[in-house]
Design brief:
single chain; alpha/beta; Rossmann fold; six-stranded parallel sheet; 17 helices; 48% helix; globular
Length: 395
């Protein structure tokens, strides 16, 4: 069976959540489908990165989004009512290439990742699945309170358009998937319960416990150019860490991850380490005592929590994150919804090694039994196969 996949970004390296999801899904789906991959990209994709994906695809096309066409398409979106990010990723030349490949390769199914690629599959009768993945409108809404006056207006503008678009694309696809139940409930459609939950997994062979020298006491990991991660980094450095220092002045926090924003870089001090890109992020999981991710905004399932728990780190998060993760509070994970609560949990773990080891072990067992890419993606494969067989019978 032939599967045509359309992505808003090339799926390697996996430093962003959507790329991590796409890469691991492609690996599993390739065992059951002949995959044609069409990926958009803002920048030139290295041959070495393409080589990482080639074993799983019979054809790969990378379409470069040039800045002039991006600006033009955003302007068009302003006037045609589409969300700005849908305009950003839509390109007529890319559409022509996709249409041509659909005719020549004759896929049995089309799989689009995120709203950003949905429009490329609107005008075809081929069975198709849209992965909403996250609820973009809710993510934008959560950024409004902390934004300045100009950005507040822009976010409100984009949020309204995203809500309409999330509802509009629903009827355009045979199947819809999403990462978690809380996200599904936020999709503004009366039949949102028909959206199928396909969670992320974690590569448990790659992310597994090992002993190494202590690098830091506390660690937060993620793409440090992503607004919810920037916000969380500031929250930890400015609000949580000072409270911990009242009792343990020596404690250090490491903010590890690619493309740190200037707001993150300015947090660096003798007690706050900002790493930027690291070749093997596992060293920072393994070299920390506690993983912190009390996210205050954003949507979806946090891959960083799956990875940290898979490496047997005691983790502290927020109710917002755990709503998607669904770990048992106080047993598998600790929940802190204020700086004081996060600090108190961190202090308790630092002062009681046995308690920390118990939380870490419980979290590890929870992830091992609940989150695997193989299990989640095989469910997606069954949905695709069923939809394609139904269409074949009709013909």
């Amino acid at each position: 069976m032939k599967l045509f996949i359309i992505l808003p970004r090339f799926p390697y390296p996996t430093e962003k959540g959507d790329k991590l999801r796409a890469f691991n899904q492609i690996k599993v789906l390739s065992k059951r489908f002949d995959i044609t991959l069409f990926a958009l990209s803002h920048e030139k994709v290295r041959e070495s990165d393409i080589e990482k994906v080639e074993p799983y695809c019979s054809s790969i096309t990378v379409f470069r989004l040039r800045i002039i066409s991006v600006i033009w398409n955003i302007l068009l979106a302003v006037f045609n009512g589409k969300p700005l990010q849908a305009g950003y990723y839509y390109n007529r030349k890319a559409q022509k290439q996709i249409n041509k490949q659909l005719k020549t390769r004759k896929p049995d199914h089309i799989y689009c990742q995120l709203l950003r690629t949905a429009a490329y599959a609107f005008n075809t009768d081929i069975p198709k699945t849209l992965d909403y993945q996250d609820v973009f409108s809710k993510g934008v809404e959560r950024r409004i309170p902390s934004a300045n006056a100009v950005m507040k207006m822009l976010f409100a503008f984009e949020m309204k358009r995203l809500r309409k678009y999330e509802q509009y694309v629903f009827s355009k696809f045979d199947n819809k998937t999403i990462i978690s139940k809380p996200d599904r409930d936020f999709i503004p459609h009366e039949n949102n319960d028909r959206i199928i939950i396909i969670p992320n997994g974690v590569d448990q062979e790659h992310y597994k416990p090992y002993k190494t020298k202590r690098i830091t006491d506390l660690v937060f990991i993620g793409n440090m150019g992503y607004p919810p991660n920037i916000d969380c980094a500031e929250y930890l450095a400015n609000k949580v860490l000072p409270l911990i220092h009242h009792k343990h002045s020596h404690v250090k926090l490491t903010l590890a991850g690619a493309t740190p924003h200037n707001r993150v870089k300015t947090l660096a001090s003798d007690k706050v380490i900002v790493t930027g890109w690291v070749d093997d992020i596992r060293e920072y999981y393994a070299g920390a005592a506690i993983f912190l991710a009390p996210m205050q905004m954003g949507t979806g399932l946090q891959n960083k929590l799956l990875e940290a728990m898979a490496m047997k780190l005691p983790c502290i998060t927020s109710s917002l994150c755990n709503a998607a993760l669904m770990a048992k509070e106080g047993t598998d994970i600790l929940i802190g919804n204020s700086p004081e609560e996060v600090a108190d949990h961190a202090i308790a773990l630092l002062e009681n090694k046995e308690y920390a080891e118990t939380i870490a072990l419980n979290g590890y067992m929870f992830i091992k039994s609940t989150y695997s890419w193989e299990g989640a993606t095989n469910k997606l494969a069954e949905i695709i196969e069923h939809s394609s067989r139904k269409e074949s019978v009709k013909k």
